[in-house]
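Task card 7
Instruction: Convert sequence to structure tokens.
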Amino acid sequence: MKYVDEFRTPETVQLLAQKIKTAATREWSIMEVCGGQTHTIMKYGLGQLLPPSITLLHGPGCPVCVTDEQRIDKAIALAAQPGVILCTFGDMIRVPGSQSSLMEAKARGGDVRIVYSPLDALALAEREPGREIVFFAVGFETTAPTTAAAAREAKRRGICNFSLLVSHVLVPPALEAILMSSDNQVDGFLAAGHVCTVMGLTAYEPISAKYEVPIIATGFEPVDILQGILMCIQQLEQGLAKVENQYTRAVTAHGNTAAQRLVSEVFQADDQRWRGLGCLPQSGLRLKDKYREHDADARFDQSAGSAGHSISPHKCLAGDVLRGAIRPSDCPYFKGECTPDHPLGAPMVSSEGACAAYYSYQ
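Output:
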């Protein structure tokens, strides 16, 4: 079914749900990778339209949720240093590190500011030449190009008081980690359409072939997600495992090659720690040596933020949620000790977090 505006109707949603019920003859578990997809599923009650044989799992595609505690500790330590302004996206402010959050660091007197883009932080560095401006850069392949653009522009214009605390992560290694885990339940994936807009589809093909799982690039509206589920089930029922594109109005096979070139110019792949998933090989980005003068890890004390213990290591089950091993409502602390006002972990804080979606819409 080709996506056009007139298909954005309740009738189309019901039609797709009926097609899914007809197509599914066995039990299948499908993971939507992105937190934005999770919120659509919960907001519109899409899971209730599916047959009991179809289980939707919620994946690690929330960049705030997977940012490692020690990186947040590092950002907090930088915000506490005299002369430093720590800039980041609004979602990061309340995410707990090992001992506190950036919001608490701000309350203690740290200069923490919310910006909408790393280029806003770069502009601040121009206006405040006597201060060190550090942008805490998080996100997947979608946001990495704008961070790369800020680094290149800072170097080109010689803005020396601007640096990046880089915590960008890559989707494909996370999918492999989930598929390799001993408690893996995933039969197929709905890949995040906005990530695929940048990276294309080819990076998923080796994963689909190696682990024999369908991967469907999917948009974020109810019709997108239901059509992606249908495409995934049709493959599973036929014993197929390939990469398909539901989100054809935005995603191409090779993605945004200009953005990819920019990221390759500025960054290189590196091992990265993920909250709840551990250290995944070549799953993150770091600045190349020629941009070292804009690398906050190189410019500031490496020991800052390296210590600390989790606030509630025995309570927050973020890792299990991010791997799809449990649903948020399975956590004994959900809606009790853990709420958006008093979160035990990142998935309850972020606007893309699975726990936040369940709290808002279940």
